[in-house]
Structure formats: structure tokens, C-alpha cells
Amino acid sequence: MRLAIVAVGRLKDGPERALYLTYAKRVDDAGRALALGPLSLAELAEGRASGTAQRRADEASRMLERAGDANVLVALDGGGKTLSSEAFARWLAERRDGGERSVAFLIGGPDGHGDDVLKKASLKLSLGPMTLPHGLARIILTEQLYRATTILAGHPYHRA
């Protein structure tokens, strides 16, 4: 099952991008035997509309377009559902075992997601109640994807 992250904003070269790339490679390496991955990343420019609602709508339209044929959409949203690492791993395995071809994780811009993304997402996922910088949210999500692969593989990386 292919995995994708579609995010508004770009990670600059430096430690954040390096850490993201480290975990993305781990997801690809560990996920291969589990039929999870590869993980792709699409980075979109922030919307330029002057109004918040129009900016969110523009970003939502472009995110959904980049998500393409992903048949499962997950919107990262502060008001979404929180899952333990184990529950997240089970959720991924259930999608894979249920025959889903791809999952796209959508990370909105500073103003949040547009209504279209929230309506079309089959899961609204929260990484926790604290507000995170978008680059850090991307890293945490990617680490949790790697952790999920290790949980499913019985690898000792995850020690709960």
C-alpha cells in the first residue's frame, strides 16, 4: 500500500529535512516486506489569497489534486482523533489488509484545512493537543509511520 504525505509548506535544507529523510528511508526499508510504502512527499506552496477562507479552499483544492488517486485520505487536524502508536499501526494494517492501494496524509497550512479536505478525509488524525510547527508535524508523522512498520514487523524499535 503506497503512502504519501501532501503538505502545505516546504522543509528547507537543514536538520529538519535531514531528519524527515532519515525516517522516510526507514519507512521504505522496513515497510517493503510488509507491503507498506514507498513513502512519497508532495510539498505545496502556501495559498496567496488575502482571505483565510479562500486561502484554505485554494490549499485544499491543490492538496486533493496532489493526493491524486489515493483511496484513503487522512487529514492531520488538531481536533482529530488521537491514536496510540499501536492503534495507528493496527489502523494501517487494517487498510492494507482490506485491499486499500494508497493512503495520503494531508498536512494543511498555517490556517488549517479547507472544508473539502475535512469532508473527504476518512480519518481526521491529531498528533496531540499541542500546536506543532508544520515541519515538526511532518517529522513526527514520518517517525510514527516508521514506528508502525516496526510494530507490525515485531521489531524491537518500539518498546511500550
Description:
With about 160 residues, the chain is an alpha/beta fold. The protein has one domain (about 1-155): 3-Layer(aba) Sandwich (Alpha/beta knot), CATH 3.40.1280. The protein has helices spanning about 15-30, 50-65, 85-95, 115-120, 135-155, and strands at about 1-10, 40-45, 70-80, 100-105, 125. It has a 5-stranded parallel β-sheet, sandwiched between helices. Strand 3 (about 70-80), helix 3 (about 85-95) and strand 4 form a beta-alpha-beta unit. The protein is globular.
Quick overview:
Its EC number is 2.1.1.177. By secondary structure, this protein is an alpha/beta fold.
Helices and strands in order, then pairings?
Layout (H helix, E strand, L loop, with lengths): L1 E7 L6 H17 L7 E6 L7 H16 L4 E10 L3 H13 L4 E6 L7 H6 L2 E3 L8 H20 L7
Helix pairs in contact: 1-5, 3-5
Protein name: Ribosomal RNA large subunit methyltransferase H
Organism: Hyphomicrobium nitrativorans NL23
Keywords: Cytoplasm, Methyltransferase, rRNA processing, S-adenosyl-L-methionine, Transferase
